[in-house]
Task: structure prediction
Amino acid sequence: MQRPTMWIKLPGQAEINCESITKGLRFLQDDSDPGVTNSYLTDAGLDGSILSYQSIAKNTINANFWLHFGDWYDFKMKKHSIAKFFAQKGLMRIRTDAEPAIVKYVYAGSYSIKPVQDYSHEALFTVAFDNPTGIKYSLGWSDDEMTYGNGLWQVGMNLPNGKHLDYEYIGQRSFKIYNASDITVDPIQRHPMQIIVKNTTGQVEISNQTTGTSIAYRGHLTASDELTWDGVNCYLNGELANNDTDYTYLTLAPGYNDIHVSSTSDADIRFHFKFLYLD
Result:
C-alpha cells in the first residue's frame, strides 16, 4: 500500500519531501474545508438583512504527522528539527500525491508535539497551515504544455478529455480561451493572470463576450513593443502604462470564453494564468 506523500517548498528553496525534515517523520494526511464570507446590510426598522457581497474566506489546512524516536534526547532533537523547519517565515507551497498537480500557498501555524503516552516512542501531531486566499492553484500555467507526462496536470482538474487547448493566438480576431478553474479568474481578486500582446501596431482592445469585460490600450504601439496586462495593471516594455488604458480589467468565467480582438494589425496574444480550485 502506497504511503501518502507531502512536498513542501520554502521561499527561495527547492521543493522537498516533508519526511526528509527529520528521520522517523511520516506524513499521514491533510484535510481542509472551503470558507465563504457573507456580508449583509441591515436597515433599522426593516425586517431581515440584504446580502451585500460574498467572498472566499481564508481556510485552514490540517496536516497530520507521525514521529518515531528513540529515547527522550532523540525526541528533543527531532522536535527541534521540525520546529526549525516550520518556524521559517514566508509563504510555503505544499502539495500531496493525492493532488500532485494542485498546490496551496500557506503559512505554518501553531502545533504541539507530545508522545502519545508516557514512555512511548511515538508522537502524533497536526500542523495547521493558514491558507490566506482560501484557494488551491494549478501547479502549471495555462500556456504550459498540457500532457500528463510532464507532471503539471492530473485527472480532476476540469480539463476536457481529448481536447487541444490553445492559449496563444496569432492574427486571429475571435477565439476561445478555456478556464479550467472552479471559479472566475478575476484580477480584482488578486488572481494571477497575464495577457501578453506582441507584434501589433496602433491601439488594441480585447473583450470577453462571455463575461462582458474588456481591456484596451489607447496609446500607439509599434511592432517591437510588448504589452502586458499583469493583474489590474498594464505595462509597456516593462514600464507602467495604465494612463494609456481604459482602467478596466478582463475576467475569465469557468469553461470556454469567447474572446474578440480589435487592433489595427494582426497581434500575437497569449493568456498566462493559473487555474483556481476550491475544496
About this structure: DSSP finds one helix and 21 strands in the chain. Residues 72-86 form the longest helix (15 residues). Helices lie at 72-86. The chain has a mean pLDDT of 95.
